[in-house]
Specification:
It is a single chain. The chain is 77% helix and 0% strand. It is mainly α. The radius of gyration is 19 Å and the shape is globular.
Length: 228
Amino acid sequence: MKTVSLKAKFKITVDVLMTFGLLFAMGYQFWGDAAHEWVGVGMFVLFILHHILNRGWYKFLFKGKYTPMRILQTAINFLLLADMLALMYSGIIMSRHVFAFLPVDGGMSLARKLHILGAYWGYVLMSFHLGLHWNMFINMTKRKFKGSSKLSNILLFSAGLLIACRGAWVFIKRDLITYMLLQSEFVFLDYSEPLILFYLDYLAMTGLFIFIAHYAAKGLRRFGSKKN
């Protein structure tokens, strides 16, 4: 079994922190404007750090063969880049605290639309991005089950499938597709909802997208290896 380097662990930690930062921000109704904006700034810092850590990826962008897996990774990465830029721009325009000192006037309607699209698509894309690198987590977890790889595979798959099923149900129940397709410019916020239930639902949806991305990546890798 391959070991995971310290640098790789740090990269994945940054990805996880960004994902949980966005999860925190999705619960706007629990924390209010100021906390929402400061977490957004923290995500922006992590976003810059992520690209510094992965700057080597850009050097090889136009080199080598593009396998189905590499095409998927590249598409997710660029969509996520565009999404984060839209989130940061719209967040600055709409800011009432952190960037309130900036002489920004107008553009609020466009910023609101971009922020809704950026938030929900960013949440999905970050989860997909995490799922494409989920093997690192699996490798670390498997070390806890020395000598029982079959059992660990069954347990991990079963847990992932259960979480994914719950996440699919929550995705439909919370009607996220409405915001992802911008069918509404105003997000319904339930201020009476228990915080723990809200975040358990969103963690389940994160699990759904990680599950889809992880097994899609496994399938594409196998397809690419057979083709070669």
